[in-house]
Specification:
DNA-binding; five-stranded mixed β-sheet; 18% strand; homodimer; alpha/beta
Chain lengths: 406, 406
DNA sequence: TAAACAATGTCAAGTGAATTAACATATTTG
DNA sequence: CAAATATGTTAATTCACTTGACATTGTTTA
């Protein structure tokens, strides 16, 4: 099993084993004992006793109960939920979700608010802070109690700089110092990431791909993007734009995409395309419950998904078509990446096998046997919250490892 | 810069810094000083002095001369070329190449021999050993002087087991204990890898992608495969079949491929396809110097490449067509992986820009701006020897780090 | 040319995270 | 209840690394 997500900073190579132990404790479902730690890290029991002693003294870890067999009952260790609280902030193209979590990454409270990302950072970010400032006191938590926060946005991120690259969906955000701006207003360390990347992290830590070594999370929202977790580490690529599966060309002269090209996956299977195809169908007189909506061009992807769920055959077919296109692109990904699991997230993933079956079928047909036999294709377990939970994981990584530093 | 290729075994986490220093010395072009090591590893000068002292005492490293500026001249360090010799063995579908190298990975001697991989391991492997046994004594090196060897084969490898997965081009090799068999006959540790994977390693260490963090090596031979080096580490995927770019579907109802599907990249742009398209053109009466060859179905990819080189316009067009198909698949790879560099290797890569320009053009057209702007697309510098050199790097990794262990 | 400066490299004492080897504790089993 | 088994702790020791002083080797300046 992969052990670390946290990129260990150079200054702490010294305490490598302490950080390794901390991550093993964090991500072990149901806790882990000292002896199991010693086996996995490769240290002696004595060394682990000493390391765990430090972690308990720092109030990061506590002892709990677990099961056993044979001799003496092992003492289970888990993160101390009261060591502190963090925020996970998921900024989408039309909304923001903020999650308050404790040390165990348990969600204590949550808030949603609409947002229009095209309005740029000067409008959006103050809105986000405003939402937090009015909501947080009601949860019984002061802003000063927050140890760290992580934010994700739907575009490629230059993570060292805390800015976004050149996102087509985020006009005006280019070069704005998102992380620094938020750190100042929230008064705590902030980490900036990509939504699909954090989705991958969330599903890896607490979702469908728990503990897998190689995971791809496909976020099918307004756009389509992938977050990659390879050999147990988030993979960002050279300029932070790895995983841009949405702009793979599938159909030579297909419909035009927001990126300027034709026939991109996003233009064939994304939320925008789903709505568009629904409207086209209606104008051609296809039989569907959506025909009642007026004006027809107010139909959005959410409507199509809801109708498909209710049993609307036309909308179900639209979803299935999306599945085949997604499957084609995912087959390429499976051939190239050879992952353990592909997790499908975003709105349409709620439809489960209706979407997944055509994906699975296409992947089986279009990728190498060794690769498709090894891969599971599942819907996101954390659903709408995959990315926010990934942000929580990231925020906890920051504060846990920072405190463990000394 | 990426520092390690060698996957550090658990037992040596203790000497982490010693291994880090060794790799920095190995891959620093023109040597590296103690002070530079201390900066890059993050240790004090005193600690580096001690570590380097150990390495010199073990005869792995020696002092050499370099340039300076300012105060005292730094003493450059390099691997001691005489610490030992290794073999790099590249098994292709029709040939085997064996390279003898010293500690600095300098090629001392080389041998080529034909081979038919479809004859299975019981025929091929004894042939390989036979080639080595007759050639090696002439180089002034006894088999007993070889510290380690690395072998690559053109199929997915289960590297822990030292066997191949389920390669379509390698019937009969499935489950044969290639590594163990060779270790016994050669009397030294052997590492088994995939040809594209070792090609990536070779070009990363001494070729076109020297020291890059994220590199993809595309081997265009009889088949088409990619080796991936991500975040400075070889990436193999879950079952060792990552990088199978050759079986990405490009054309829905395209020509049939060896894998059973239709329209795979390999069936459109691989060596087999190149020869096939040449024969088809001839039978249609196209004007080409290849028409002289008789019978027409004896034409192979090598002939087409040679003709294109001589200026045969028909053959050049075939190569350009291959370039566009390769470009389409590489555009997907660039979108997904966002690499620093894509290195094109194999026979056709000798043609340089004739092949690369259509690739570059297609990638520019079909991938995201942030990604194609960041990526270089180059031909392999090591040419035919990319994989064999990667094998040398791997073999040296084994012996250097094993000796440094204690 | 000598003195000052600058950078690299080494040495010796001290620190702390690990190992080793013995012991303590808790739970199941005969 | 004793024996067996597994987990966890303790104290002495080891060794990689830091600290701070010093040595070496080069350039620059008075």
């Amino acid at each position: 099993m992969a052990t670390t997500v946290w990129q260990i900073p150079k200054a702490s190579v010294k305490n490598l084993n302490k950080h390794a132990a901390l991550d093993l404790i964090r991500f072990a479902p149901g806790g882990i004992s000292r002896i199991e730690l010693s086996r996995q890290i490769g240290l002696t029991r004595a060394a682990v006793t000493s390391i765990v002693g430090d972690l308990i003294e720092a109030r990061l870890v506590r002892e709990a109960n677990g099961q056993h067999s044979g001799g003496r009952k092992p003492i289970n260790l888990e993160i101390n939920p009261d060591f502190g609280r963090v925020l996970g902030i998921d900024i989408g193209s039309t909304h923001v979700t903020v999650v308050l979590a404790n040390g165990l990454a348990q969600v204590l409270n949550e808030v949603n608010a609409p947002l229009d990302i095209t309005q740029g950072p000067e409008i959006c970010l103050p809105q986000v802070v405003q939402v937090i400032n009015t909501w947080l006191p009601n949860t019984g938590t002061g802003l000063s109690e927050i140890l760290a926060a992580a934010v994700d946005v739907p575009g490629p991120v230059v993570s060292d700089a805390g800015k976004v690259g050149a996102p087509p969906i985020m006009p005006g955000w280019d070069n704005f110092p998102i992380r620094d701006w938020l750190e100042e207003r929230l008064g705590c360390p902030v980490s900036l990431g990509n939504d699909a990347e954090f989705g991958a992290l969330g599903e890896w830590a607490f979702g469908a791909g728990r503990g897998e070594k190689n995971l791809a999370y496909i976020k099918v929202g307004t756009g389509v993007g992938a977050g990659l977790l390879l050999d147990g580490q988030i993979y960002r690529g050279t300029t932070g734009s790895a995983g841009e599966i949405g702009h793979i060309t599938l159909v030579e002269d297909g419909p035009i995409c927001t990126c300027g090209n034709h026939g991109c996956l996003e233009a064939l299977a994304g939320g925008r395309s789903l709505a568009l195809r629904a409207r086209e169908g209606i104008s051609k007189g296809r039989r569907t419950s959506l025909a009642e909506i007026w004006p027809a061009n107010s139909i959005i992807a959410k409507d199509v998904i809801a109708a498909a769920r209710r049993g609307d055959l036309f909308c179900q077919q639209l979803v299935i078509d999306s599945g085949y296109h997604l499957g084609t692109a995912i087959a390429s990904l499976v051939n190239l990446i050879n992952p353990d699991i592909v997790v499908i997230g975003g709105g349409v993933a709620q439809l489960g096998d209706l979407l997944l079956d055509p994906i699975r079928q296409t992947v089986k047909q279009r990728s190498l046997k060794v690769s498709w036999q090894a891969v599971r294709i599942s819907a996101a377990i954390l659903g709408r919250r995959s990315s926010a939970m990934g942000a929580v994981v990231q925020a906890l990584s920051m504060s846990l490892h920072q405190i463990a530093q000394v």
